[in-house]
Every structure is written in structure tokens, then in C-alpha cells.
Amino acid sequence: MDEFVVTTDIAGFLAPLDQALFSDFLKVASYLNAEGHRDAPAVICMSALEGHLRKLSKKAGIVLTTDDGLPKKPAALNEELAAKGAYSGLDRDNVSGWLDLRRGAGRGGSYRYRPNQVALLLEGVRRFLDQYPA
Q1: Is 27 helix (H, G, I), strand (E, B) or coil?
Q2: What one-character DSSP code corresponds to residue 69?
Q3: For the whole model, what pTM was predicted?
Q4: Is 87 a domain residue?
Q5: 21 with 128: CB under 8 angstroms?
Q6: Are 74 and 53 in contact (CB under 8 A)?
Q7: Alpha carbons 35 and 41: distance in angstroms, whole number
Q8: Whose CA is closest to 42, among 120, 127, 133, 132?
Q9: 127 CB contacts (<8 Å, ≥6 apart)?
């Protein structure tokens, strides 16, 4: 299977769009949350966070795949980022909690969390992305 390789020129051109794309995902998630949805905004928000964790990991020199070539799970990246000092243990704990909420949301488990927790999730992830640019 052929791999698509992005040249550094194209990657450099597209890099400023990453933050805008994450911001747009968060806007969509905020809109859905305001409309009373719970699972969809949580999943969309966490997709933006997971992409950001991958970018932070790459920036920190953390390998993004396991020994068998599979992508590392966001929880593993979170632990490695905190261990490398990319952010504090408190931020690691926040990300862990957000990942737990996403697991419930991804399985249609909105019964596991209160509606206001999605709004807190959105606010927390937005601040996290701003505080730790990739």
C-alpha cells in the first residue's frame, strides 16, 4: 500500500490551520452542547484534544506508535507528556478525567455524566489547547 508523504513545505503551510481546525471542532461541539446534545459534543471535543495530544507528543519527541506499530492510546501519550514535563501532573489528571468522560460518551453513555460536565469539558479543553500550543 502506498503511503502519502507530506513534504515539509506543505506541512509548514498547513501547520497554522491546525489550531483553526481544532477551534472549529470546539465551536461545533459547543453548538451541539447548547442544543442539548451530550454525547456528540463530548466525542467531537475529545477528538480535537486527542489530535492535540499527538501534536504535543511529536513536538516533545515522543514516539506515537507502540512497538507493534499501532498508534499509542491518548492515555499513554498523556502519561508520557506529563512525565517529560510538557505539562503538570494536575493537567495530566484533568486530561485523564476528560478521556474517561469520552469513553462513556463514545459508547452512548451520557447517563454516566451530568449535562453541565460537557460544558466544563469544552471550557477545559479549550483552555488546555491555548495553554499548551503544539
Answers
A1: helix
A2: S
A3: 0.77
A4: yes
A5: no
A6: yes
A7: 10
A8: 120
A9: none
Domain for residue 4, yes or no? no
Whether 3 is covered by a domain: the verdict is no
Residue type, 123: E
In eight-state DSSP terms, residue 85 is T
* CATH number of the domain within which 39 lies: 1.20.120
Q: Output the average pLDDT for the chain.
A: 82
Q: What is the extent of the structural domain holding 29? A: 18-131
- Reported as a single tens digit per residue, the pLDDT across 67-125 is 999 999 999 999 999 999 999 999 999 999 998 877 665 555 555 667 788 899 999 99
Contact 77, 53 (CB under 8 A): yes
**106/108 Cα distance (integer angstroms):** 6
Domains in the chain, number? 1
- For residue 134 the three cell numbers come to 503544539
Q: Could you tell me which residues are beta bridge partners of residue 20?
A: none
Collapsed DSSP state (helix, strand, coil) of residue 71:
strand
- Main-chain phi, psi angles of 87, to 5 degrees: -160, 170
Amino acid at 102: R
